[in-house]
Structures are given as structure tokens and as C-alpha cells.
Design goal:
2 copies of one chain form a homodimer.
Chain A lengths: L2 H10 L13 H15 L2 H12 L7 H16 L4 E13 L5 E6 L2 E4 L2 E3 L11 E8 L2 H12 L3 E4 L10 H6 L3 H12 L4 E5 L25 E4 L1 H13 L4 E5 L3 E15 L4 E11 L9 H20 L6 E8 L7 H12 L3 E7 L7 E7 L2 H8 L2 H4 L6 E2 L17 E7 L4 H4 L12 H21 L2
Parallel strand pairs in A: 5-6, 6-7, 7-8, 11-12, 11-13, 13-16, 14-15
Antiparallel strand pairs in A: 1-10, 2-3, 2-9, 4-8, 5-9, 10-12, 14-16
């Protein structure tokens, strides 16, 4: 059905002709959005620069600073109507020298890959060595109590459930160990916590991520161990429950640092005071290049504005790309942006976040009223030709979450995430892990949704 | 809705308990199929062996021979009810020494990567050097006629259309150049044909594949040039239309060789004479390891039978895994298998092929009557929780195509193919390009469909 249109648009050549006459049908506009994305994609080249020339961008780091300056400049070069920085203060945790760890069993030393969890304290300079108690979850720590835990290293080894088709559900079902394991263990006198990496794959990469220390408990050092390392440790423990584990890490939390959300917008022509946000987070973990998490979401968001501009589309509402700072270890950017919007009485009708990787699109999660969801579902036939079948399943995104209090409808871009946790928070999250076509299709999907919201409101 | 079932099955531990009592609901069986695939997958390890230990498997090669023997042994080890070889004769084309090619313009020599097309003749020993005429398609050759073509190398440079969401549609829209370019060019006196590789990506891999010489025209040598090479050649031609292109290739067609389809089956308990085929092709191009094309389809097909066996499922109908030989340059396996079925009066009710890569499942194409398609669509609610939204779109697969004459309903497994043509027919089609979870999900999807067909017929 779409083919005749497609052909016309393709023949017309310059996409800017699409809006030259009477308003084209939505299907024609959406087709032209995908055509523009798939033939003139810029997101992939931008991502190459962000990941390979700037690299990791943990809050407070030099990389984060460079990324702020470069992204601002990039949006200025695109000729957006306004580009500006929003000041925020962010946590400033640094890893320091590379961690060391080994298992000592029957006088055999087995080196295993670990990475300090974000926010963790260092070990003493000589490291920590202790016996290990393996548990499958937080409750088990409470059951073992002081008698089972005191003086030991607690090894949290519950894997992500591989049978969940939605990998984020599997992540959600295991990540409490990383977030709260150290606190649970410390309550009962543990001297350290080692957490199985959050991935379905068996690999040699430790998958870092944040922990939260609880009030009133000692701050014990905590690290992620690679899944292969976890399997090794578990097997050796079965053979020799008295083995010891040694680890040394050198991380520390410095005073909060000044940083920024980076914001660019195209001003609306009819309802400029109604804002539609597309965004991702600019910060990343320090081990890789922050490609899928979340360089892709940032570059896709800028690409959404570029595509609409390239098509000569004049939005009714204001469309704003927001590069949030500090999603990974504080969410200060997301919270700060919602505060800014509130303080300025800005009306945000919708926010779309891409923070599940730059993979082939599958749909959008929606957080809104039933009526709002129903309205979005009336657009379904326009979106399914592009593989967007899963509309309304699941939530939004961490950075846009705080906007919910302003009545903003939240959309989480849902790509195919079967590979996501192969890269997430590791040294493997590099530019090469991103496929150009998959990335472009995601940007086009976000642009198509942005267009429909702009046209019809919510 | 499925969650309580899921939990029960998971807790029950051994999947073989699923069929111990009264017949479970279809949703429970399908959940148990995915659980088995995602926790005990064997396809990935098998694929590692096939690709890394055996490697490329072009018809008639040593690799193909080894793959036949190993696959037979593998199915025997799985304890299938019958495992056997079907004799077929196959084309035996060999590449010989690596090709050489360069552009000679303004005394500058620019080396470009090429690969002889399968079935092509060699160049003379000293190579071919001639001026180049660039065309965007076959018709253009006819328009240029002898005056424009004679004594030249025709350079077919129409890219795959990047705006097609379905990459196979884009492939279908460009591949006539590879299949028939040499014949069209030879008709008008060309001395060689160079074809832009079939991929949306810009890369340095020539993407090989078969050509067909037409009757009564000279056999001229033809090669694929990498897309980066094609861009370079096109740019240099614009600056200097009189440049020359040199290439040398050493391929030849040997006499047909004996080979085999490899077949394993689980016998049906109620209607053993009704056969359901799951299959892929065992042969592959010679440049890579034949991972996505089509090691994945073969290993998934054996995995389907393994999964059903592991669950203790006793099929009503006979379920047969067929590893077809010679899909790439002759289809002798597919044609021979249909002949075999016809000769033996075998009733094949359905055939499922996986030959679009081992990526995340999106659905199944169906070739059958409207009533048969409608019946399959009644199963939709059982399949969409696993991401199988696209049911009935598109066709089956090359190897199973000849079964259509027996009234067999054909199903093409449809994974997400956005990355497929990054690997297809190149040195990059290696084991590392396959993601374990994505592969498992595909095998589970094929097993789920097999189960439903077995239960309810077509």
C-alpha cells in the first residue's frame, strides 16, 4: 500500500519537497523520515567521534567534560534554534589503578577479572583476603546472619534468568545484588562483596554498575566479577569451601563536580510552549566507550532533530534533544532537568528516551493514562510497517522518569535487546558493537513518533 | 498471563515432566520449549565446531564432505530414530589462487578487493585489462549496445536500496546484476564483468555468490568488487573515463561431484507418514565459515529435534531435520530431496527453513492456501509473546521451494535481518558474528511452530 508513495518520495529526490505543497499523508511523512535516516544518516559518524575520539564519559571525568563541549558544538552546527547547557553538580567517583583479584585454593592461585562497583570504597592498600560465602540473593544473607557472614567476603552469584525473553526483566530480577549486596553483607560483618556480572553471556568482562550503601552500615568494598570468573569461583568453592579470595581496588569518591545537561531545540511554530523531549544520557561507565550505553541514544536524539530539519518539517510544538548527564551513578541530570522544567513552568507533553541500546526497533513503552495510550495505539498501522509492533509494553527511561510528576507522557524506545547485556557496562561497549542500519532505524522510529505527537498532541 | 505457567515449569526442573501427566496447554508447552532452548542450548556449541573446526563447505569441497560426515554423526549421537544420507551429484567449482585487481588511472595503481563470482570462468593467465563502462543495471547494457560495450569491462554498480526496511527486498532488487550481468555484458562483446557487492554496508569485503551464464553467449570472467572498491572505481571513473581496470582470477568448474543431503528424524506416533521438515543448507561459500549462511539454520534444525526430545515430547507426526547440500550454487539438494519425497510417495505436510541468518526471531513467512495461512494465524497469540509478530509475510526458502509441488506448506523462518548482508557470502561470515541468545531464540521459535503443526496439522 505504501509503495506508490514511497516511489514518489524517492523520485522527488530532495526530501525537503515533501512539505512544499499541501500537507502530505502521515504515511508519506513517515516514509520520508525513514528514507532520510537510511540514506543520509549522521548518527553513526557522530557516534564514532563520541566513542573513539572522546571515549568513556563517567560523571566528573575529563571525558564527560569533552563530551559536553563537543555535543553542544555539534548541535550548534546543525543550526538548531537554541542550544544551551544546564548546570548540574554530579558525583565524582574514580576507579584509580586497575583492580586485582584471585582465588587461593589448595595453594593454587587463580586470577579472575573484577571491576569495582561504581561508588564503592577502595580496599585497604594491601587488599582484602578472606573466606567466601556464596549466596543466591539478599535474603540468604539475612538467613545466614552474623554467624555465617562475619569476617567473610559475600559472593552474590544469582544469574540473570535466561528464560526471560525480555532481557531487561532478567536484569531487573538480578540487579538487587549489585545495588544492595554490599549493604546487606556489611550489616552482618562481611569484609567485602563480590557480585556476579549482570549478563546472560559467559564472558571474561566484569560488568560494572552502581551500588548504594545503606545508612548506618560500614562501607565495605564491592566489585563485579566476570561471569566466567563467577563460575570458576563457584566450582572451586564446591570442591574447597575453605578457599580464600583476594581483591584489591583503588577507587574513591571525590567531591561533587560541576557538569551539565546539553540541550538543543527546534522551536514550535504553533504551540512553542508545548515541549516534546527526545533524549539519552551523555555519561557512560569508564570501562568501555559508552557506545550502546548510551552514546547511541544521544546521537539518535540529535539525529531526530536533524532528520526533521532536513525534511523541511516545521514542527507545531517545540522539539528538544536533551543529553542528560549522570544517569549511571546519580541521575542528577534527569532530576535536575525536571526541576528546571518545573521552575520555568515549561509544559512537557511527551518525553522519549533511547537507553536500551542502538539495536533494531521493536516498539515503544508508554507511561501515561489509558486514554493517552489508546491515542498512541491509533497510530499503530503507521508504525508496524517499520517493525514497531510492541507499543505500550513496559516503561520509559531513567532520565525522563522525573518528568512524570509534571504530567508528561513518557516513551521508552524499545529496540531488540537480546545482545544488550553482552556489552552493558563493560570494556566491550565499543563503537564496533553498533550496527549502522540498526542505529538509523532507531533514530527514524523516534523521529516518526515525535512527528505524530507533534501533529496530534497527547 | 503466561507467568504462572512459566514459574511452574521452571520449578518443575526437568522439562521431561511437562508431558508426564494429562496434555498441558499449548502455552505451557511453548514456554517449556523456550526454557529448554535458553537454558540448555546446544546449537551454539555445534555451530562453533561446524564453523571453526570444519569451516567453509562449498559443494564438492573437502569441507562439505567433512560437514556431511560430522552432521550425520551428530544426529546419530542425539539418538534420533533414523539418520541417513541421500546421494546427490553437485557442481564442483573451485576458486583457485586469490584474485588480484587494480584500477589504473593517471599512472596511479589502486588495488581493490574482488572475489570471483561462483561459477565464473577464470581470466586468461595474464589477466584481463580494459576500459570500464559503469552501468546501474542490465537494461542499460542493452541500451549501450555493442558500440558502448565491446572490448570493455562492464561495471554493474546499482546499490541495494537502503530505504527498504526488509533487507531481502533490497537484495532482490539488486541481485540480477550478479546473476545475469556477465551474460548481458557478454552478449555485446564485453571482456569481463565487475559487480558491486550485495550489501548496504560500505566495507572492504567482496561479497561473492553465483552467476548464471546464458545459452549461446561467450563465458566472460565475472567478479564481485567490495562496496568501498566500487565507490572508489566509480569516483575515479568520473574523473577519468578512460582509466583501465585489471583483474585476474583462477577459478574453474570441475566435473560434478558426489555429495549428500543429511537427514535425521523422530518418528511420529500417530501419523508417522505425515512428515514435517525443518531444515537449512549445509553447504556455504568458500570465503568465510558459513556461519549465518547457513550453519545457523542447520544447527537450529537439529536443535529443534533435540529440544522436543529433551522435553519428552512424542510427536504425532514424523519430524525430520534436513541438511540440504548445494543451495548456494545449484540447489541440487533441494530439488533432489523433493524428487526423493515424490518417488517414495512421502506426504510432506509442512517444511520450515531457516536461511536468513541466526538473528532474533520476528516471524514466519508462509506459502500455502488462504485457509492454511488462516489456520496458522489462529496460533498468533501463542507466538507473539516471543516476538513473532510477522506471521505470513513473505515466502519460504530456496531449499524447500521444490516441495511446493507436493502440496507442502512452506514456512520461511524470519529473523531480524538488518545485519545479515554485512556478513552474507563474505570472509566476515564467521562464528563470532552469531549471538548465542539470538540463535537459541530462533531454534525455539522453529520448535514452537513445529509443535503446533504436529498437534493440529495444516
Amino acid at each position: 500500500m505504501l509503495k506508490p508513495f514511497l516511489f514518489c518520495v524517492a523520485l522527488a529526490g530532495s526530501a525537503s519537497t515533501v512539505f512544499a505543497q499541501t500537507p502530505p499523508a502521515d504515511s508519506v511523512v513517515i516514509r520520508s523520515i525513514y528514507n532520510e535516516a537510511l540514506t543520509n544518516d549522521k548518527a553513526h559518524d557522530w557516534l564514532r567521534y563520541l566513542t573513539q575520539q572522546i571515549g568513556p564519559r563517567l560523571s566528573g571525568s575529563e571525558g564527560a567534560k569533552k563530551a559536553v563541549a563537543w555535543t553542544k558544538q555539534l548541535m550548534e552546527q546543525q543550526g538548531f534554534d537554541r542550544v544551551f547547557l544546564q548546570d548540574i553538580m554530579v558525583p565524582h567517583w574514580v576507579r584509580g589503578a586497575k583492580e586485582e583479584a584471585y582465588i587461593l585454593a589448595d595453594k593454587q592461585k587463580t586470577v579472575v577479572p573484577i571491576a569495582a562497583l561504581g561508588g564503592s570504597v577502595a580496599t585497604p592498600a594491601k587488599g582484602v583476603q578472606a573466606q567466601v560465602v556464596e549466596v543466591k540473593g539478599l535474603k540468604e544473607v539475612e538467613q545466614l546472619g552474623q554467624a555465617g557472614i562475619k569476617g567473610k567476603i559475600v559472593f552474590f552469584n544469582r544469574p540473570m534468568d535466561p528464560t526471560k525473553i525480555n532481557t531487561f526483566e532478567a536484569y531487573g530480577g538480578a540487579v538487587d545484588q549489585r545495588g544492595s549486596g554490599a549493604t546487606f553483607a556489611a550489616k552482618f560483618g562481611a569484609v567485602g562483596a563480590i557480585v556476579r556480572s549482570m549478563t546472560n553471556a559467559l564472558d571474561d568482562f566484569p560488568h560494572t554498575g552502581s551500588l548504594r550503601y545503606g545508612p548506618g552500615v560500614p562501607l565495605i568494598p564491592a566489585a563485579a566479577i566476570s561471569t566466567n570468573g563467577a563460575e570458576k569461583l563457584s566450582a572451586l568453592l564446591k570442591a574447597n569451601p575453605a578457599l580464600t579470595f583476594y581483591f584489591k581496588q583503588n577507587c574513591e569518591s571525590l567531591p561533587d563536580a560541576p557538569s551539565h545537561n546539553v540541550i538543543g531545540e527546534i522551536r514550535g511554530s504553533e504551540k512553542p510552549d508545548e515541549i516534546i523531549v527526545v533524549g539519552g544520557h551523555l555519561d557512560s561507565w569508564d570501562l568501555g566507550q559508552g557506545a550502546h550505553d548510551d552514546g547511541t541514544g544521544c546521537m539518535q536524539s540529535i539525529e531526530v532533530l536533524r532528520i526533521l530539519k532536513a525534511l523541511g518539517y516545521k514542527p507545531k510544538r517545540t522539539i528538544r534533544a536533551v543529553m542528560y548527564m549522570n544517569e549511571e551513578n546519580g541521575l542528577r541530570g534527569g532530576v535536575g532537568y525536571a526541576d528546571y522544567a518545573k521552575k520555568n513552568n515549561e509544559k512537557h507533553i511527551a518525553a522519549i528516551e533511547s537507553d536500551e541500546g542502538g539495536f533494531t526497533p521493536r516498539g515503544f513503552g508508554i507511561v501515561g493514562t489509558d486514554a493517552q495510550k489508546a491515542k498512541v495505539l491509533t497510530w499503530r498501522n503507521l508504525l508496524t510497517p517499520y517493525g514497531l509492533h510492541e507499543i505500550g509494553v513496559g516503561g520509559g527511561g531513567a532520565d525522563i522518569g522525573p518528568l512524570a510528576q509534571l504530567g508528561t507522557v513518557l516513551f521508552g524506545f524499545k529496540p531488540d535487546t537480546q545482545r544488550y547485556f553482552d556489552y552493558h557496562h563493560t570494556a566491550a561497549d565499543r563503537f564496533e558493537a553498533v550496527n549502522k542500519r540498526e542505529l538509523s532505524l532507531g533514530a527514524a522510529s523516534m523521529a516518526a513518533l515525535t512527528y505524530l505527537i507533534d501533529q496530534y498532541g497527547l
